[in-house]
Amino acid sequence: KQEVTQIPAALSVPEGENLVLNCSFTDSAIYNLQWFRQDPGKGLTSLLLIQSSQREQTSGRLNASLDKSSGRSTLYIAASQPGDSATYLCAVIEHNFNKFYFGSGTKLNVKP
Amino acid sequence: GAGVSQSPSNKVTEKGKDVELRCDPISGHTALYWYRQSLGQGLEFLIYFQGNSAPDKSGLPSDRFSAERTGGSVSTLTIQRTQQEDSAVYLCASSLAGLAGGSDTQYFGPGTRLTVL
């Protein structure tokens, strides 16, 4: 069974720092990998999706990379802002689309 | 409204009762997803609908769970003979093209909080 691990579980940084969130998975036979953001009281937001054939995806200050062979993805956040404070979740999706496996998330706090 | 809507927002039921949760996706979105989030267990995927294709139901937690999507639009998640461990927030999302459509953003509804007493 696929296992997804996110490190660190929590992270607190001062505003303006660049930071990296890590996601690892045990089975490299994935279709794609997604990063989500969860804000208390505001629900979930889809951030980036990387197909298994891709190496990275970028959206604004966010860059997600995928190394399928080593079972790793990173989410890079540039010039962090207090509004980036949230829990970030990664999920891997199997080829037959019948299963998503979520990590337990990284809770990010960006201090003004 | 332009977003994904779910009803009811809150549901309290007694153990053993059946419940129906509804999801109205964004108009024109072909893909629809159900998830649940339980305290202490994180986010769990339940089922994915792509257009009018029959979904793979193997992600549903037990045979007490079933899901339908009528006319490629509204979806209902039904839980029969509810148990206390079914208590969770049930989230629905929709996307324009689905998982095979390349980079595809999911838009989430506000969720239904289910409490089984």
Give me the secondary-structure topology.
The complex is a heterodimer of chains A (112) and B (117).
Chain A: E1 4-7, E2 10-14, E3 19-25, E4 32-39, E5 43-51, E6 56-59, E7 62-67, E8 72-77, E9 86-93, E10 100-102, E11 106-111
Chain B: E1 5-7, E2 10-13, E3 19-24, E4 31-38, E5 42-50, E6 65-69, E7 75-79, E8 88-95, E9 107-108, E10 112-116
Quick overview:
Chain A is mainly beta and 112 residues long. Chain A has strands spanning 4-7, 10-14, 19-25, 32-39, 43-51, 56-59, 62-67, 72-77, 86-93, 100-102, 106-111. Chain B has strands at 5-7, 10-13, 19-24, 31-38, 42-50, 65-69, 75-79, 88-95, 107-108, 112-116.
Written description of the protein model:
The complex is a heterodimer of chains A (112) and B (117). With 112 residues, chain A is mainly beta. Chain A contains no helices and eleven strands. In chain A, strands 2, 4, 5, 9, 10 and 11 form a six-stranded mixed beta sheet that branches. In chain A, strands 1-3-8-7-6 form a five-stranded antiparallel beta sheet, with no helix packed on it. In chain A, strand 6 and strand 7 (62-67) form a beta hairpin. The radius of gyration of chain A is 13 Å and the shape is globular. Chain B is mostly beta strands and 117 residues long. In chain B, the strands form two sheets. In chain B, strands 2, 4, 5, 8, 9 and 10 form a six-stranded mixed beta sheet that branches. Chain B is globular, with a radius of gyration of 14 Å. The termini of chain B are far apart. The chains are: A mainly beta (112), B mainly beta (117). The A-B interface holds A 31-32, 34, 43-46, 49, 51, 57, 89, 91, 93, 96-105 and B 35, 42-45, 48, 50, 56, 58-59, 91, 93, 95, 99-100, 102-111.
